[in-house]
Write a structure and sequence with these properties.
67% of the residues lie in helices and 2% in strands. It is mostly helical and 408 residues long. It folds into two domains: 325 residues, no CATH class; 73 residues. Helix 3 packs antiparallel against helix 4.
Length: 408
């Protein structure tokens, strides 16, 4: 099966209404999830730091995010005199809309047991529990991730101030450097599953696991390394600690959104946390089987929601834990990690998986497969060591030049 079976036949009023219902439900769910994510992060960090956290608006302070959003909505909206008004107004939407569009291709439930293929029945029609299932879903995720950078870059450029411009340039360089590692780690998943559809990737992981009890997740199939690379690159793409150099207050005042206020600032704030929820959902979908899981009792599609949200909460907790624990990297360390470590490692591991796949398809003898694997792994290791050594040499020369200038 390819695509949503709801769209396989004639498009009538019922089909249109079901699609609209899925869009509204997904949008409402994402907004509520973002509101709860902000509260969850503030409350969890306060617990880790032995503070109370929000406790006034609503029970346990759960409505504090709603109160903050209401306050921002009614604050005065300022536009700098030197700003490019049209681009300045458009930039927050370019940061917010891609986050929702990315979530539209994430399957959040479905009956993946047996031959159901993740479909459920709504109003007498078979459909998927995701807004859309394009055949190039993984490429769509990468495209939306790239478009979101435009919102940050244009926000800094259109503000007419040097501090936001510096923040936006730094954000663009950071996003470009980690986009390559992110794409190479995704290529490993596509290579092993032979599909670009997010739904089909979940279906491929829903089968019988190894030895009957080890899950058939891409985390195991790809050898863990692509997942680690994707997690690090995704953290940098989200501008979350320890990679939050885009908004380094000690250096850039407030970063690219320094000149923003009121609801436009709130949109950037909303996009940041929405991207965290969306990226966690992508990690769950690509590496941990998405909503696929055993049905202990009752309908299987209800258990799919349970498994999806349980896995999602694990990664949301991990992102908050990293924020509360890790110090911020220097900018040169961030760029070195992206270009000199993650990209060579991701490329070498992709070639390694490709050699193993070709060996299986061509029935190569085991010694030949091992020789090819060792050759690729050795070349990748040599490239990685060469790049790191080159970076250390350049930095040492720079430090000597600075010391020489200081002595003069």
């Amino acid at each position: 099966m390819f695509g949503d079976p709801l769209l396989a036949g004639d498009i009538d009023l019922v089909v249109v209404l079901i699609v609209l219902l899925k869009v509204v439900v997904a949008f409402a769910f994402l907004l509520v999830a973002v509101m709860l994510m902000i509260w969850f992060e503030r409350k969890l960090i306060s617990d880790m730091q032995h503070r109370i956290g929000p406790n006034r608006a609503g029970p346990w302070g759960i409505l504090q995010t709603l109160a903050d959003g209401t306050k921002l909505f009614f604050k005065e909206d300022l536009i700098p005199e030197q700003a490019d008004r049209r681009v300045f107004i458009l930039a927050p939407y370019l940061a917010l809309v891609p986050a929702f569009l990315t979530f539209a291709v994430i399957p959040i439930g479905g009956n993946f047991n047996g031959d159901q293929g993740g479909t459920v029945s709504w109003f007498g029609r078979d459909t998927l529990l995701q807004v859309a299932d394009p055949p190039v879903g993984v490429l769509f995720v990468l495209a939306m991730s790239a478009i979101a950078v435009y919102g940050v870059m244009l926000a800094g450029w259109s503000s007419g101030s040097k501090y936001p411009l510096l923040g936006s340039v730094r954000a663009s360089a950071q996003a470009i450097s980690y986009e390559a590692a992110l794409g190479l780690s995704l290529a490993a998943v596509v290579l092993m599953n032979r599909t670009l559809s997010t739904h089909d990737i979940v279906v491929a992981q829903a089968g019988e696991g190894f030895l009957g009890f080890i899950p058939n997740w891409n985390l195991i199939i790809t050898g863990v390394v692509p997942f680690v690379i994707f997690l690090i690159a995704a953290t940098a793409e989200l501008n979350r600690p320890p990679f939050d150099l885009v908004e380094a207050e000690q250096e850039l005042v407030g970063g690219f959104h320094t000149e923003y206020s009121s609801i436009r600032f709130a949109m950037f704030f909303l996009a940041e946390f929405m991207n965290t929820v969306t990226m966690s959902a992508i990690i769950v979908t690509l590496f941990f089987g998405g909503p696929a899981g055993p049905a202990l009792w009752g309908p299987a599609w209800i258990w799919s929601f349970v498994w999806f949200f349980a896995k999602l909460m694990v990664f949301l907790f991990a992102f908050v834990w990293m924020r509360a624990t890790l110090p911020r990297l220097r900018y040169d360390q961030l760029m070195d990690l992206g270009w000199k470590v993650l990209i060579p490692l991701a490329l070498g591991w992709l070639l390694l998986l490709g050699a193993i796949q070709v060996g299986r398809a061509e029935d190569w003898p085991l010694p030949i497969v091992l020789a090819v694997v060792v050759a690729i792994f050795g070349s990748a290791s040599a490239l990685l060591a060469l790049s790191v050594r080159s970076g250390h040499r350049v930095r040492a020369e720079s430090d000597r030049d600075e010391a020489r200038v200081a002595r003069r």
